[in-house]
Sequence to fold (494 residues):
Amino acid sequence: MTPWKGDMSTSAQLDTRDTLEIVTGLLVGKFEADPADVRESAPMTALLIDSLMVVEMAITLQDELGVKLDEEDLRDLTLGEFVSRVDERRARA
Amino acid sequence: MTSALAPVVTGIGLVTAAGPDRDSTWAAVREGRSTAAPDPRLHDLPVSLACRVPEFDHPVLHHRGSSALDPVARLALAATAQALEQAGLDPAEWDGSRVAVVTGHGTGGVHSEATAAERLAERGPGSVSAYFLTGYLINMAGANIALRFGATGPAVALSTACASGTTALGTARDLLATGQCDIALVCGAESPLTRLIVTGFTQLGALSNHSSRPFDAERDGFVIAEGAGTLVLERPEHAAARGAQVLARLIGYGASTDAHHLVAPHPEGRGAERAVRAALADASLGPEDIGHINAHGTSTPRNDEVEGALLHRVFPHRPPVTSSKGALGHTMGAAGTIEAGLTILALNEGVVPPTAGLTELDKSLDLDVVMGAARATAAPIALSTSFGFGGHNAVAVLARG
Fold:
């Protein structure tokens, strides 16, 4: 068996795709959220169902996009708000 | 153990390099077909021969959090799901507080460890996955089984190195016999194919880069392997009450420790012999009652020499001997449950499988090792041995159901 998918998240170059596309892809692909639940109005805490997932999402976005996020960014925002915040950080990076 | 207390086996799940299910694994063993191959991920190491489980999928791995599972937990969950299906047990309906989980492992989630160590070194502490410890800790394969199937009785993960699977069977038997549970999910699981673990065994001179050839004159080490085996054990009255099909009974168990050397077996196999004799006594059987033996048979020069001599000593009637490691390699902590499962399949089909890789029996061994093709037998009782680094010895006696 190959090691788990998370091992593959280490990209050598930063992802240049649209932030919503990237985050949605992670929620469905890596974190196995039901695609029907992934709406911009959904709270991130409903999409990432435990603290492990929250921490892992922050680590993954640091890997993929080079942006540093706090757990609070993930705990208090909807998906749409979270994507906007990531976009702000990407613009600054 | 008195027959009234001897637990029954109602389900077997196997995931090995031969395939992700019981049938493909049994087919390889029954045909004496080796599954070892040079492993591309280990290609630049001194030893790269391994038995890696092919990529597979299973519905049990389609739940939130599954993508973070270490391979060892994936193997354990798939084997356990299979075993439960065969046993006809539906976790949605059982009283989970009466279900125990006993797992055996030589290593833990070493893929998770390798990844985390690499990231720590290259990117710093903030890059280490939140899932590092849930993948790495040795109890987590069992915890995942408990979580996934709602087993809320006692759960224990134990290690006696390469004897762990058989030790798990003995521990589960005691939980059942003392009334602490009605059902025990007993799983040996191992996913050791990281560069570091393979290197560790290479440095000990334990591995073959040629082939697994148990009891062969030219044997030169074991082939390291992935795999998992789960047996569903039940109190006999519990299985009878629900009308379950009984595949086998675990009628004897014995264990001992060499206290001789951390990795070398006692040269006369005294500790191993005590475990074999203890298992026979526990089953209230004499050596002549054993119809065939699924040997530990690692294919290392030393193990097979010492084990061969002790089997000759204890069993003068020369029952047929087989080693599953010729086909599947050495799955370490999983070997005990995988080989117990294969022994039950052999008892129920009335054959002793051949020892894959064996072409010329070591002339110093006075044993009837089955080679070439499976041999028919009507004998209803078999014995399975497991020995581990650390001097751990564990032996199970199984009777057809």
Chain A has five helices and no strands. Helices of chain A lie at 19-30, 44-47, 51-65, 71-75, 79-92.
